[in-house]
Fold this sequence. Notes:
Elements: E1 3-13, E2 22-38, E3 42-49, H1 61-72, E4 78-84, H2 95-110, H3 117-132, H4 140-145, E5 148-154, E6 157-162, E7 168-175, H5 181-186, H6 194-213, H7 216-222, H8 229-232, H9 239-248, E8 253-256, E9 263-268, H10 270-287, E10 291-297, E11 304-305
Parallel strand pairs: 3-4
Antiparallel strand pairs: 1-2, 1-11, 2-4, 2-5, 5-6, 7-9, 7-10, 8-9
Amino acid sequence: MEAIKVFCPATIANVSCGFDVLGLALENVGDEMEVRKTEKPGIRITEIIGQELPLETNKNVAGVAGLALLKQSNYDGGFEIKINKKIKPGSGIGSSAASSTGSVWAMNELLGKPFSKLELVQFAMEGEKLASNVAHADNVAPAIFGGFALVRSYTPLDIVPINTPPALFATVIHPQIEIKTSDSRKILKTSITLENGIKQWGNLGGLIAGLFTEDYHLIGRSLEDYVVEPLRSILIPGFNDVKTKAINAGALGCGISGSGPSIFALSKGEEQAKKVATSIANTYDNIGVAYDIHVSKICSKGVKEIKN
């Protein structure tokens, strides 16, 4: 192949109790990218639709991630990239991860798949480092592997795909304010109490067990965050009201998507997820904040080719 068009899924990182180590990919929310091989070495971003982002390779996460791949490849040519940016930067649903993973996944396909999924995650993490100053993998791992993905270790990098119960749906509401990941990290504490650590580890273990056993009640009672949510929630208008309404409407659990301001809820079944969407939208209708809202199944494949 000389060119490929791909879908790059939005992602929910942390999933309440898994700060920097757990994430999931969404089925029907994401960016689209076109990547083409060229004889001229290097990477050129020729067009970005939907958002005002830099075309300069070294200032764009797709370019930086792609350069990391090129450096490790035997390919003498280069690539041109067009990005249809449907995920707003600073939304908390993996905007930078979508561009980073779409870039390296597409290049790998065009080169005949010389790199493993784990290696693609490592390349994409360079894009995340540009965006947030931290090379975290909780967005790029599920975007590459699909479904839920656990970052068991960063040194060395170890990604564990996690089972996704078939009836699990996500509702995501994005109030139209921007919270940069780098800024939201600055308010986090560098240490936690042993008591909160024990609660958090128990919830993460419970969530993983619930996903594998497809125990929706266990999933729900494990979606509690004692470490990050108490600090970041103050940056999100109406957060507590949204969470209360989501639970009252039947959601299994509710929390901050990534660094925010998006808020996610998980539900059993699409109809239940839609009821949650209707309920939580009322919060921002009442306080006059514009928002986007999505109901999505969990994406099992991650980045994938769009065939015309």
